[in-house]
Amino acid sequence: MSSEEEFETTLLVVSNVYVYRIPPRPSAQGYKAADWPDESLIWQGRLVIVERGDLAIIRLVHTQNGETFAECPVHPGSVEPVLDSSRYFVLLVEDRATKRHAFLGMGFQERGEAFDFNAALQDHDRRIADAKQIAARAAQAGPAVDYSLHAGQTIHVELKANPTVSNPTKSSAASTPRPSGPGVQFASNGGLLPPPPGSRTRARPAAAAAAAPAGSNPWGDFTSAPAGSSA
């Protein structure tokens, strides 16, 4: 197998087609399959369409041994449909060895096979056209910009301080509410001072009642006041 055939992609295979020796073009309008008599049939075998790079090739292959009978490189004008049938075409075949050209008629048994033949060639043309457009856009855009850091390159970023959060400890301490009221004292570090020593030795109510004169109310007149009145 040659290096060229190693990169071929098969687009379509039709198991049986007919090839005819055709008379010269009867008019400028084109060919007609009705002008090909039955005795002009010269070959019957398999059709294969392959893609090699940007080129599509129609290959007529012997069914028995797989050898190539004829090839038709697809160029503008090398494949022409006839005027009176959708199943017949005229191919401009080329001999690899002698580089000679000849026009041969080709026919399919079914219209579906002829449809697949046309579709494979159209898909190839569309794919090649799209690839050329992408390549043209890439050429117009120019080379891509490389933003990566190379050896020895560094990035310097300058960060500015925010004055509103310059001392978060001080601002949070200032915003903390302190209890207020008589008798509340604060230490130098911001905490509450311990209570004075005399506040821990309060007299019990029972002892105070025993020290009060007989018949008096240790709570004063507050307990005897009627409900709803003020002391």
Structure explained in plain terms:
22% of the residues lie in helices and 25% in strands. By secondary structure, the protein is α+β, with helices and mostly antiparallel strands. It has a domain at 3-140: Pleckstrin-homology domain (PH domain)/Phosphotyrosine-binding domain (PTB) (PH-domain like, Roll). A hairpin with a 6-residue loop joins strand 3 and strand 4. It is elongated, with a radius of gyration of 53 Å.
Topology (elements, then pairings):
Layout: H1 3-6, E1 8-21, E2 41-52, E3 55-61, E4 68-73, E5 79-81, E6 88-94, E7 101-108, H2 111-141, H3 168-175, H4 205-211
Antiparallel strand pairs: 1-2, 1-7, 2-3, 3-4, 5-6, 6-7
List keywords for this structure.
single chain; 231 residues; alpha+beta; PH-domain like; seven-stranded antiparallel beta sheet; 4 helices; elongated
CATH topology of the domain at 3-140: PH-domain like
Distinct helical segment count: 4
Structural category: alpha+beta
Q: Which stretches of 5+ consecutive residues score pLDDT under 50? A: 218-227
Please name the CATH architecture of the domain at 3-140.
Answer: Roll
Strand content: 15-25%
What fraction, in percent, of the residue positions are helical? Answer: 10-25%
Question: What characteristic shape results from the CA principal axes?
Answer: elongated
Number of DSSP E strands: 7
* N-end to C-end Cα span: 121 Å
Alpha-carbon Rg, integer: 53 Å
Biggest β-sheet description: 7 strands, antiparallel
Give the integer mean of the pLDDT values: 78
* Spatial strand sequence of the major β-sheet: 4-3-2-1-7-6-5
